[in-house]
Design a protein that fits this description.
Elements: H1 3-42, H2 57-64, H3 66-99, H4 104-115, H5 119-130, H6 135-142, H7 162-185, H8 189-197, H9 202-213, H10 215-231, H11 234-239, H12 247-255, H13 263-294
Helix pairs in contact: 1-13, 2-13, 3-7, 3-10, 4-7, 5-7, 7-10, 8-9, 10-13, 12-13
Length: 295
């Protein structure tokens, strides 16, 4: 083989890994650029309109807004309620799939089909089923359980946010089950047999043996669901109440202000979300580090 061809082949082999990761590097670069630009705008730096002075004024203005505290509180309530419902429902779904001894492919398909459904489609399902003229209120009215469709709690704009929790439950219950089904399915039956010989019922054996072995995966799934529900925009925008607004919706409204300088205030509000999301990320890595130590 000629020396030039051999050199070209060696060079191609050396450059191949870098060429393969180039698209990912570009995407990460674009993401980091957006994050850095947003953080700087929160501190008043927008060079394209001549604002280059670093200031905390927009953060002070955002924190002084009376509706910010209510928005943060509503977002935290919504995230916590959705995460708890997803946690309980995901554990029940995972236990049902493993106890039924369904094949691995069936388990994954039962979980992944709801995961592949877009949130906007789930919102449409929820509105079609539970709105004032939806299927569920009409069935309840036909059974005489409610006086009329208007007496059924509204799924859109209800201050309790039960429609939002229901929408997140559709997606996040399968996600929690997806994160725990592999571990729960591989728990040795000898542990359950040992617990049953000591007088434990199957339910007691599940809570005392199986579930503690899955607590790392359950904790990580809870944190991921909490962070996602806290930062989600489209579901609170479509189903959320007028007041209080979820924090992502409030920030987006400020971002749409015709005055482009108002974008600094919106980015300061996004900075509040970043701080809370960062705390959740630290908690996630703490759980991951604890698992590694235990191993």
């Amino acid at each position: 083989m000629p020396m030039n061809a051999l050199t070209a082949r060696r060079l191609k082999r050396r450059l191949a890994p870098y060429a393969l990761i180039a698209p990912a590097v570009v995407l990460v670069g674009v993401f980091l650029y957006g994050v850095v630009a947003g953080v700087l705008q929160g501190f008043g730096i927008m060079p394209f309109i001549g604002k280059t002075t670093f200031t905390f004024d927009y953060w002070a203005e955002a924190l002084a807004r009376p509706d910010l505290a209510s928005s943060v509180g509503f977002s935290l309530y919504l995230s916590l309620a959705s995460s708890l419902v997803a946690l309980v429902g995901g554990i029940v779904l995972c236990a049902a799939l493993t106890s039924a001894r369904a094949p691995r492919l069936v388990q994954l398909l039962d979980i992944q089909i709801p995961l592949m459904t877009a949130h906007t489609l789930v919102v449409l399902f929820v509105v079609s089923l539970f709105a004032g003229s939806g299927l569920v209120p009409r069935m309840l009215h036909a059974c005489g359980l409610v006086e009329g469709a208007s007496s059924f709690p509204s799924v859109v704009g209800d201050p309790s946010g039960w429609g939002l929790v229901l929408t997140y439950a559709w997606k996040e219950i399968p996600f929690v089950a997806f994160c725990t089904v592999t571990i729960m399915a591989n728990v040795s039956e000898r542990f359950g047999e040992a617990a049953s010989t000591m007088g434990a019922t199957p339910l007691r054996s599940f809570f005392a043996v199986t579930l503690p072995l899955c607590r790392g995966a359950v904790a990580k799934a809870f944190l991921v669901v909490f962070a996602f529900a806290f930062g989600s925009y489209e579901v609170p925008f479509l189903l959320g109440p007028t007041l209080p607004k979820a924090l992502p919706v409030l920030a987006f409204i400020e971002f749409q202000d015709p005055d482009i300088a108002n974008r600094c205030l919106a980015m300061a509000m996004n900075g509040v979300m970043v701080l809370i999301a960062s705390a959740l990320a630290l908690a996630y890595f703490a759980v991951l580090r604890r698992e590694r130590r235990q191993r």
